[in-house]
Amino acid sequence: MILAEKELQEMRGISEKEASARIREQGYNELPSQKKRSIFAIFFHVVKEPMLLLLLGSGLIYMSLGELKDALMLLSFVFVVVGITFYQERKTERTLEALRDLSSPRALVIRDGAQKRIAGREVVKDDIIILKEGDRVPADAVVLSCSNLSVDESLLTGESMPVRKGEWNGDDAVKRPGGDDLPFVYSGTLVVQGRGMAKVTSIGSHTEMGKIGKALQNIRQEDTLLKKETAKIVRNFSIAGGILCLLVIIVYGLTRGNWLNGILSGLTLSMAMLPEEFPVVLVIFLTMGAWRISKSRVLTRHAPAIESLGAATVLCTDKTGTLTLNAMRLATLCVKGRYYDIDTKDSKPLPEEVHDLIEFGILASQKDPFDPIEKEVKHVGEFYLWDSEHIHKNWRLVREYPLSKQLLALSHAWESPDKQNFVIAAKGSPEAIGDLCHFSKARQDELMKDIEEMAGRGLRVLGVAKAVFKKTDLPDWQHDFTFVFVGLLGFIDPVRSTVPTSIKEAHGAGVRVIMITGDYPGTATHIARQIGLKNPDRYITGTQIEAMDHLQLREHIKAINVFARVVPEQKLAIVNALKANGEVVAMTGDGVNDAPALKSANIGIAMGERGTDVAREASELVLLNDDFSSIVHAVKLGRRIFDNLKKAIAYIFAIHVPIAGMSFLPVLFGLPIPLLPAHIAFLELIIDPACSTVFEACPEDKDIMKKPPRDLSESLFNRKTFIFSLLQGVSVLAVVFAVYVFALYIEKDEFQARTLAFTTLVFANIMMIMTNLSWSKNLIWIIKSKNKALWYVVFGAVGALALVIYVPALRGLFHFSVLHPDDLLITLLSAIASLAWFEGLKFFKLSS
After folding, report:
1. pLDDT (tens digit, 9 = 90+) per residue, 721-772?
2. Order of strands across the sheet with 338-341?
3. Using CB atoms within 10 A of its CB, is residue 183 exposed (0-12), middle (13-18) or buried (19+)?
4. Which of 93, 737, 750, 754 is deepest in the core (most CB within 10 A)?
5. Band of the pLDDT at 681, cuts 50, 70, 90?
6. Mind listing the pLDDT tens digit for each residue in 313-356?
7. Which residues contact 794 (CB under 8 A, 6 or more apart)?
8. Higher per-residue confidence, 48 vs 377
9. What are the start-end ranges of the H helices in 65-195?
10. How are beta strands 562-564 and 396-401 bridged, if at all?
């Protein structure tokens, strides 16, 4: 039995003030095992990094050599690097926490008398929650009212069959999960049918799920293609660094007889070779990328989606709410083959012929509707028929007959205060309403003509029927009533203004857009023409898909971009056919039955506003505003993230070549050692922020959406990238080493030669950062680009360099000497010359 209308109106729920107080007293609705990393755990993770261990080792060696100042300086670098890395780790942790909060299961509650969707963790005891098909139950609760409510409790009981739920009579004691017709629902279980309202009795660890420990333990992240590739690069570099380290120690010890200094030189080379930035950069790029995408109203639930976004070749999208506004407007009424266009901006009264159609359309809807179509029917009825006998405020709803897979229509049975009969109102798909009215073949054909006429105008069509029934026990099935057909309601859902431009942008980027809808072919093709889909008049229906085998569908799908009258289960067949044709598929979905298709797609995209929790759980991305243009923007950001990550990796490899070379070549040629551990640490203070901020913040190239999608298997560090990075690194090494050797040749002392070489290396490093920000745009474009992080790093690096050269105490610690203006000019010109060839290559490439 459904709660009386008066009781529903009085059910205001708790207030926001009460909810906040209960959260403070009882905590959030989450399980105790959902722990975030403590500050100490993050600190331990930071200090065990190989680079820091090498710095500590070098500091201890300096101490054993009696060089206390050098040892303290290195240890101070350890603290600085730990501080920077710790800050980055905490920032990443906070970003992930914010993303987890966004992606947590949601709940629809009543607070202060209004429906409100909140994060599941914010549900408190005594909240009134609204349960609908496809929702996860956010907390243990008692059912106050329900209609055809069934819940899958297999998570708690192991039984695969859903159980029916009844209404609480005020006396039932709380029981464990399992069994039909109990008035209790439990946290984490899934609503598979019907709807209901429930009052929360337990949250967090006090729920049944909390009691039996069905909590999320440590989340094990899967290794992505990028993670595997960077791990392989780091491993190879580490092996090479270890071999060269041993070689340097042996050569130094044998040629100079000082094994302790040899170990120090070997550790310096290891620090120079170790590309410890790779894994850090990968984490920061993916995390910050997810955050940037979330600003475009797209939530990233799984990092691999960011890798796949830029490679998407097909976007499969729903029509309603994604391409359109999901703001249904009642535009046309059809009664007995005659059409009536309406507009609530026009106060002209409606003809008497359509009054019954509006009346029974309202009666077949909820009294306080949430569904946009039902809201629109009620709005039109109240606008035109407010003071007429067609509006029934005092009628009582006695029974609802819900939609089912077998019959796409619902009915409401009403009792009026002064009539002897029940009045039945039905609405649903026109075919289903025709079935309820037992139409003959000829009458069905007439109905189909009206449907096709309205669908051709881009209208979504619903049929309405009515019946009367004597006041006896109501039957179990809608078919037991004798229905009379009333007419058709035609709704138009306006296309989002941003969609045609986004479709054009997607096509320009080589991304095919496919529309999948449950609407009629006429409606679908009308919308397809409006938004600019390719081949808008060619379509496949769900019935045709059902008749095709997999190979036939694969062949037909190559040129078809419109799929009409498709049921959710058929989306999986479409996705699999596209994938079998070699496409990288992004698929949108919102319902429970969309989950298999979302899971199968390369990139599953759930609807955030109208999507069920099941769809969200099966997806990699959540479209928070359900707007198609946000998907295209996310693809653009995905391409930008991958491009910038590629640039950062290329830069890291390139800059390590001269650093490692300047640590190895002087040992090999018997020259004084130019780079000490402190110098490597100084360079890391430039390299780390350059990788994690400058390249991450680099704006995308203007033609990024004019390029075809990249191959999903494309390597982050392919042969072309390797060759160009190696050439950059070798050219810088050659110039820096030449400056160092020339300084020694003209009899400058070790300190002067070291200072000249190091300053050239720092300037070349800055030049390398700038030139790698784009492999297609010249240096002038890069300087003009709005990348604030670049200038922070440039001025920070130059400022720090000035301090260690011109502040006596720091100059002594770094074993430097003062540089004169002509020395600075030589180092700057040498640095520019080291990479001038690369800028020249860009120029000729742009000119050709």
Report:
1. 889 899 999 999 999 999 999 999 998 999 999 999 999 999 999 999 998 8
2. 338-341, 329-335, 484-492, 460-470, 421-428, 409-415, 396-401
3. buried
4. 754
5. confident
6. 999 998 877 888 877 789 899 999 899 988 766 667 888 899 99
7. 766, 769, 770
8. 377
9. 68-103, 154-157
10. unpaired
Distances (CA, A) of 336 to 446, 468, 545: 10, 21, 33
Measured CA to CA, the distance from residue 432 to residue 418 in angstroms comes to: 31
User: Are the CB atoms for 741 and 754 separated by under 8 Å?
Assistant: no
Could you give phi then psi for residue 487, rounded to 5 degrees?
A: 165, -170
Q: Which residues contact 565 (CB under 8 A, 6 or more apart)?
A: 518, 519, 520, 521, 541, 542, 543
CA distance 716 to 45: 26
Q: What does the angle CA 413 – CA 418 – CA 420 come to, to the nearest 5 degrees?
A: 60
Q: What distance in Å separates the CA atoms of residue 687 and residue 690, rounded to the nearest whole number?
A: 5
Contacts 24+ apart (CB under 8 A), 439-447: 439/485, 446/337
Give the count of alpha carbons within 13 A of 513, CB side only: 29
Q: What angle do CA 835, 837, 838 make, to 5 degrees?
A: 70
Contact 818, 748 (CB under 8 A): no
C-alpha closest to that of 8 among 327, 397, 494, 426? 397
| Neighbouring C-beta atoms of residue 590, cutoff 10 Å | 27
pLDDT of residue 98: 53
Q: Do the bridges between strand 512-516 and strand 562-564 make them parallel or antiparallel, or are there none, so unpaired?
A: parallel
Q: Is the pLDDT of residue 359 over 70?
A: yes
- Write the secondary structure of 689-754 as one string of H (helix), E (strand) and C (coil): HHHHHHCCCCCCCCCHHHCCCCCCCCCCCCHHHHHHHHHHHHHHHHHHHHHHHHHHHCCCCHHHHH
pLDDT in tens, 269-302: 565 555 556 666 766 777 777 778 877 788 777 7
Q: pLDDT tens digit string along 20-50?
A: 999 999 888 876 544 555 666 656 665 555 5
Round to whole Å and give the CA distance between 160 and 162: 6
Q: What's the whole-number mean pLDDT along residues 684-707?
A: 81
Mean pLDDT for 577-598 is 83
Cβ-based neighbours of 578, under 8 Å, separated by 6 or more: 314, 316, 514, 557, 585
Tell which residue, 458, 479, 326, has the closest CA to residue 404: 479
For the sheet with 562-564, list strands across it. Answer: 298-300, 621-623, 603-607, 585-589, 314-318, 512-516, 562-564, 540-541
Greatest Cα pair distance in the chain:
116
Task: Calculate the CA 300 to chain-centre distance.
Answer: 2
Q: Which two tokens stand for residue 100?
A: 């987890």
Q: Which residue has the tokens 């120029």?
A: 843
Q: How far is 686 from 690, CA to CA, in rounded Å? A: 6
Query: What is the signed CA dihedral for 216, 217, 221, 222, rounded to 10 degrees?
Result: -80
Contacts of 597 (CB under 8 A, 6+ apart): 568, 571, 572, 574, 575, 587, 589, 604
- Cα separations in angstroms, 571 against 179, 519, 579: 34, 14, 12
The whole-angstrom separation of Cα 412 and Cα 410 is 7
Instruction: Tell me the mean pLDDT in the region 807-825.
Output: 91
318-342: string of b/e by CB count within 10 Å (b at 16+)?
bbbbbbbbbebbbbbbbbeeeeeeb
Identify the three-state secondary structure at position 593.
helix
Enumerate the H helices of 110-187 as residue ranges.
154-157
Does residue 379 have a pLDDT over 70? yes
Is residue 9 pLDDT above 70, yes or no?
A: no
DSSP structure class, residue 202: E
Q: Six-digit token pair at 14?
A: 């708790």
pLDDT tens figures, 381-400: 988 887 788 888 888 899 88
DSSP per residue, 435-472: HHTT--HHHHHHHHHHHHHHHTTT-EEEEEEEEEEESS
Name the residue among 421, 402, 420 with its Cα closest to residue 412.
402
